[in-house]
Amino acid sequence: MRQSHRLNNIGLINRDKVITFNFNGKSYQGYEGDTLASALLANGVHLVGRSFKYHRPRGFIGAGVDEPNAKLQVTINGHSEPNINATEIELVEGLSATSQNCWPSVEFDIGAINNFLKRFFPAGFYYKTFMWPKSFWYKVYEPFIRKAAGLGVASLEKDKERYEHKFEYCDLLVTGSGPSGLASAYAAAKNGAKVILAEDKPRYGGTLLTDDVSIDNMSGKDWSEKIISELKKMPNVTLKNRSQVFGYYDHNMMVMFERVGDHLSNKSKYTPRQRLWYIRAKETILSTGSIERPIVFGNNDTPGVVLSSAAKEYMKVYGVLVGRKPIIFTNNDSAYETAFEFKKNNVEPIILDTREEHDSEVVQEAKNKGIQIKFSYGVIVANGYKKVKSAKIGKLTKDKKSFESTETIKCDCICVSGFWTPTVHLASQSGNKLKFDEKIDAFIPDKSKQKEKTIGAANGSFTLQETIESGFKTGSELSSKITDKNNENKIPTVTETKYSVHDKFWCMPLPKNENPKRFVDFQNDVAVSDIEIALREGYRSIEHVKRYTTLGMATDQGRTSNLNGLQMVSNIENKIVPEVGHTTFRPPFTPITIGTIVGREVGMEFMPTRKTPMHEWHEKNNAVFVDAGAWKRPRYYKKGNETLLEASKREAKNVRENVGICDVTTLGKIDIKGPDAAEFLNRVYTNAWLKLPVGKARYGVMLREDGMIMDDGTTTRISENHYHMTTTTAQAANVLSHLEYYLQIVWPELNVNVVSTTEQWAGAAIAGPKSRDMLSKLFPDLDVSNEALPFMGYIESNLFGVPARIFRISFSGELAYEVNVESNYGLFMWEKMMEIGREFNNQPYGTEALSTLRIEMGHVAGPELDGRTIPQDVSLDGLVSKKKDFIGKNSLGKDAFVLENRQKIVGLVPTDRKSSIPEGSHLVENEKAKLPNPKLGHVSSSCWSVENNNPFSLAIVNDGKNMIGKKLFAVSPLKNTSIEVEIISSHYVDPEGKRVRS
Amino acid sequence: MLHINCPFCGLRAQKEFAYGGDATVKRPEINKEVSKEEWDNFVYMRKSPRGKHIELWHHISGCRQWFKVQRDTATHEIFKTAKMSEEIV
Ligand SMILES: [Zn+2]
């Protein structure tokens, strides 16, 4: 198939490899080395999308990151992604792309009616129109805006691609491989510095690939290849193309994304699509170059209007003509090079230069080449709907506010140049306050805030001589600070065209009696008239103008529009640009995929999974697991078709009647040692600890300094100066940090060490009336009688040769024990218990039965200790010592904490003895009262009491002490239930605690 | 992401640390009478300075030591880090 606009003898593409791709349902061909944009242009396709608000036909404007229009829905390898910049994505076999924001097609888009209604879509339209009535917002306005603003469609499929993260340190990070970047990387590498050179594009060299210059008698391109090949040989240099540093963060950390796989047609399963680099650099060189800005004129968004630098790049890099009858419309010398390139390829350009009769090297050259130049001229309006067909041009009056004469000339593209804007995004992100350089009408970096230095065009130096010199100098200086080496560099000799001064002109006046749109921001459809409206309506701060008009708020971050917008505001306001200021640059520089940000942390890799040593056994025995932090705990062991409720009832009942075992490995365990350990515990817990004998456990509650309960658990005195503390599963990490805080900061004089031993011990609880019988079989040589091992007693023994710790503690309220062995023997212990327990009808029980048992006993846990309860709220005031000081004690005297009618824990049963009460229900006196219905408390934990065979809940209720016997309603708006409940004591089973001591 | 110099381990990425609040707050001594006001100040009152500030960090995914960091809360610049036993002046 013929590529109608492909040139034969020019470009860096591989003509031996033809690539077939699809655009809007039609098949096209391009070459390896093409971008999607260059391949489409080679086929004469300019129309690629419809604009955001008015659905106007849009074509390519740039050739790289500057592109505001060509955002396409692109599918590669079956993976579809919206908003892909056609100028940045490389062509691969099978790539398929479609236009966005148009229906039914980009050629005929119904939304384009907006273009004819444009007087109704001015700046602030959304703010003004969608204000009221409020009730319309959710059902009418939002869906409308979403649909109308839909740019592309996010895939509903799971992203099957692989993404990776990488952490890297270096001496010098150079961002951008144009002349200044290459020179500085080379100089630093020669000094032995560890250098990373990052280039966004597939090819190194930046403007050296397109500018007609010579360095040391080589073409710019050859010189850049020579430097790159030398850098490649140096082990201290990492070269990364297709890699964009998109964010500059604190402490000189840069984040970069690397396109690893998208350009490969046969990538392996293990090749990531993209890789995210976190780079911590000692020094950074920002050599990000500059971006050409357009001149604003009527219908300047018509397909075929391109930046002059882009037209040149399409010719020189891709061998593609953007048109055969070009107008070069410029206010400066650099665009003349584009005219020369057209001429070289036998295309006759015409140059419109807004400057008055002007002389310079390039003007002379153009005249010598016989190129027609019209001075004081500019394009007033581009004609043509889906493609430029002609242009109304005009001779500007002296004040440049109107025209002396106008005429219409035929053309098929308009290459526009309004001078150059340094790419200062990274510098700005680093904290550098930018300054306005009047010579170039743009912002450049000011004093460095971090370890960053901006050089070359990014710093406003637009001559190659300056750029190369500053590259060598800066690279050498920064690196020798680090390596102490000072390699002499021979600065190469540079030949380049000298440019004369540009015209400070950026917007064409409107023709008489015509009112075409003059776009400033293409991606967000912001025209000159919108900015005028914003200012007329009183917006002054540039940040407000930006938000009201959406100028520069699109994904291109206003790369081509910011300065023209600022010029506009400053002209109207009669201010100079630096007084208006600039808006904030934020990362990322260009959009990045969510996949890249997430990396490998998806699915099972999202967070670590903690499994107990008995996990495998649980799995084999039909355990249904529940997440407890990162832990997997058996919730219940399913038998047949049992439901959760049926299974947990069976398991809990068996504990009450026989014996059950529960995997309690996940409980936090902290080993505490040192001569001051007892004193330390005495300060940490609310109760007394100094007199706890060796071989005894004690239940304790610890508070935060504000008096709220932090955690509870038992701690056992293993030997004189050695304690074993247990915490709840959820608070294990916090409690350790809490203890370390007090030992290291508050009481460093205490000689105590703490260390987590959660993973060192496997634990199993044996609970139920038959637990002693079972224990005696597990430890046949041990006296486990009530006298030898009483409630809260502790013994060390061995379990068939395995050292074991036996604690007589109970969470279920039954006679119970906890056995700990070294983790590696956890499964052995568990299997022995299952085997020996058979004759006692032992059954394993999960967290659901565990909760049932503790709730009906009135034992508090996480839902009651929610960080908003003090000890007396949950009836633990008996554990609060009046004699000694402890963490949080002073807070317990607060007025609110000693109120007579303070909230308190109570028990609830439904009056019908049948309806389960949802956890989280609110307790109210009158279920039918008008909202807001005063809330008297909330339901914290619910279960089906196996002892009494009816639902039972714990609740925290205002004035709970005096509420016993009253009836309230437990209402759950979430579950749409209202249940009448009776308030009773929280101790529903064995209130005297006889069983644990039996 | 900050780069924090743990006095025990050296320069490490922020994600290894947990922030611990104002390092200049002193807990009233244990077992001593304390006025209500003094106690409330200790529990609740914190300054939120813009600029230099000495704060606590905990190297939770490292040596598990608490230490002091002198940091500019506006620019994130870190001037000094020190062990708890050392003073930052
Ligand atoms: Zn450390």
Would you write up a description of this structure?
The complex is a heterodimer of chains A (998) and B (89). Chain A has 998 residues and is α+β, with helices and mostly antiparallel strands. Chain A folds into 6 domains: 157 residues, Roll (Ubiquitin-like (UB roll)); 201 residues, FAD/NAD(P)-binding domain (3-Layer(bba) Sandwich), CATH 3.50.50.60; 125 residues, FAD/NAD(P)-binding domain; 75 residues, Orthogonal Bundle (Arc Repressor Mutant, subunit A); 183 residues, Probable tRNA modification gtpase trme, domain 1 (Gyrase A, domain 2, 2-Layer Sandwich), CATH 3.30.1360.120; 101 residues, Elongation Factor Tu (Ef-tu), domain 3. Helix content of chain A is 22%, strand content 28%. Chain A contains 23 helices and 50 strands. In chain A, the strands form 13 sheets. In chain A, strands 8, 9, 12, 13, 14, 15 and 28 form a 7-stranded mixed β-sheet that branches. In chain A, a hairpin with a 2-residue loop joins strand 37 and strand 38. In chain A, helix 5 packs parallel to helix 11, helix 12 packs across helix 14 and helix 18 packs across helix 23. Chain B is mainly beta. Chain B has a single domain, classed as Folate-binding fold (2-Layer Sandwich), CATH 3.30.2270.10. Chain B has 1 helix and 6 strands. A 4-stranded antiparallel β-sheet of chain B has the order 3-4-5-6, with no helix packed on it. The mean pLDDT of chain B is 96. At the A-B interface, helix 20 of A face helix 1 of B. The structure holds zinc ion (ZN).
